[in-house]
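just leaving the lab so this will be short. what follows is a protein written twice so to speak, once as letters and once as structure tokens for the fold. can you read through it and tell me how you think this chain folds. thanks a lot i owe you, the record is right below.

___
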Amino acid sequence: MKQCKITVFVEQLSTRIKRVRGRSLNITTTIFLCLSLAFFIMILGMFVNNRARKFLSSDEIYFPQLSAFYPKSPRLSYSYFLCNSSSDLSLHPFQLSNGSRGLRDWTAPNQPSHLMSDKELIGKLPLGPLWEKFFKGHAGLYSIYLHTSPEFTEEPPESSVFYKRMIPSEQVEWGQATMVDAERHLLANALLDFSNERFVLLSETCIPLFNFTTIYNYLINSNHSFVGSIDDPRKMGRGRYNKHMWPMISLLDWRKGNQWFEVHWKLAIEIVSDVTYYPIFENHCKPPCYMDEHYLATLVTKIQPSMNSNRSITWVDWSRGGSHPTKFGRKDVSEAFLNRVRQGFNCTYNGITTTVCFLFARKFQPRTLEPLLRIAPVLLGFNP
């Protein structure tokens, strides 16, 4: 986008030079113009270099001119991080001018690569065959980024949608800041592709509730991002607030939500480039405060509340209580059960009330694969 703006400016400058030449100015004037132009180009170069270093923190990258150069597309994330990679265009990593973490710190090579055996892949992506069917026939409208444990060393088959989609990753610990680091790492890698427009974070236990086309249209046409963000007055909500976060983050700012987000590219850039609130959470949100439940929910409320729907599109069942949601097994999977999740709620979408509130669901154990594949052709519209 920076290149587009600069190109337009230089073309206008060339037109002005041609007009001056058409007036047959004398040698002195011509030399003065050339020297002035050289000085101007030098200043322009310094300015461009300075602006490039501030790329991630600049609001100018949000302007809709980008849509004139790159096609729109949705995407998904974590254990499955799905984006649209219809373009080979990439950015060079930049370092923020204040020395804080920039895109370079969160990204890996442009060709995400990791080594993983088929056996290990299936072991960690037990529902992979369902997702293979989900994406079949839609190449160019999505891309996938996988954050895996560092010990995996082999690639999935070349025919798989997960082939070469794993980014070099560091160990992630439950309840620690490394969980948020992994999310930002995924977003940063995906943002290197300008064609990626929507970003969804999912886990290996997630399933789609609709076919690809339905989910694609739902996300690409949404005016909002989908980040759960509520003001929870209970001990597990406001009770986790640390007064040392004040004044940058007050108790009134404090929000809670689950980590399975869906965000527009504007918000994705804000998340990756945040050097104001992230350090505060890193220093003061320690168990029983969990960054993955509070950081994004609070950040979105602070910086872009109008862009968020304040709800998640990934359904999960907390009705049984405890620290972890309900796990679903083979006997739980049925058309009736999935239809209740697909159509059994009311929410708002672009200002209109709808019963389609969730596009994904979790936590589904490996043994659910067979019944899911059996139901998918009829319920989800997948090819058998």
Q: What stands out?
A: The two ends are 42 Å apart (CA to CA).
